[in-house]
Amino acid sequence: MRTKMSFKAAIFMVLFLRTSKAAISYDDCKAGDAIFKKSKTELIIHGSVEWEESFQVTNDMQCSMACRKHTNCQSAIVNESNTCTLRDVNRRSAQVTFKPNPSLRYFERHTCPPSVEQAFIAFVSDVENCKDIYAKGHLQNGIYAIKLSSGVYQPIRCNMVNQDEGGWTIVLRRISGIVPFDKNWETFKSGFGSLDTEFYIGNERFHQLTQNGTQKFFIKMVLRGGNVRNMIFDEVRIGSEAEKYSLNIGDAMTGSYVTSGGKLKNQNDGKKFTTYDQDNDNADNVNCSHNNENLGWWYQQCGAVNLHGVWSYTNGGSPGIRWGGGVDEVNGQRENIEKVYYYIK
User: Fold this and answer.
1) How many helices (H) and strands (E) does the chain have?
2) How far apart are CA 77 and CA 43, in angstroms?
């Protein structure tokens, strides 16, 4: 005897089948669909998350479907008590490390091709940076997971086929303005954004990566019309938190605008990091972050160079992303700096 399926039940079955198939293979979903991969993983969050929600569920599907409904949800975790926790971070967020945990069921949002990158190109041990990963024979651009001495994994984004061979660790990536830089001290310390899109790895990690041996510092800027400005400095070191994460750079050695590289060295070398809640700049009676829409930066005074400026601000002036000295000019006219990258090696 045939029974009729209710409309709600039919819709649930379609969603169930579609989600189940998508969890198995990218080939079964349409471009732009949100799909989830499952693993037994624990996220360790350094700093804070902007959005988090917890509630009870009766099965894993309810948790992953709830995450799918929230556009800002990037991961869902179900514990042994069937508590579902949704967060706006995942294993590829700048402020997290992660480790296996058999008691948790972890679901991570992906987007179907062609826009998705695979979660990690490789899991690599006994390395500290992308130069080490490159030396092990990994030559593909993208996101890797490195195993730290503590046993946890940390995401890292590498450029393996760029200027001066490969092995560049990407410290900062600004490409569309979706991640603002008006953050407080603790957020700049721990990092923010997603290695999939825009991010800053954080002052503490930048400090740690520049303590062992000499690191070259490669800054790449792309103007609104597509013109590229490159500078490579022969050394960079970020001070400790006790030193207020001071910026210490060497001389500009190569690139399309080498002579303008001296502007960063002359104005910002040795300067401490300032945020809207911690004033470490050289300006008298004012916090330069307050004068620049609460942006964090290594201020000397409150103007001139600032690559953490407001994205796509008109004509590249304050408080926009700016350099000056002809770097952000084309035919004598200032042009917005729309993409910024920091690389170290």
Assistant:
1) 6, 21
2) 9
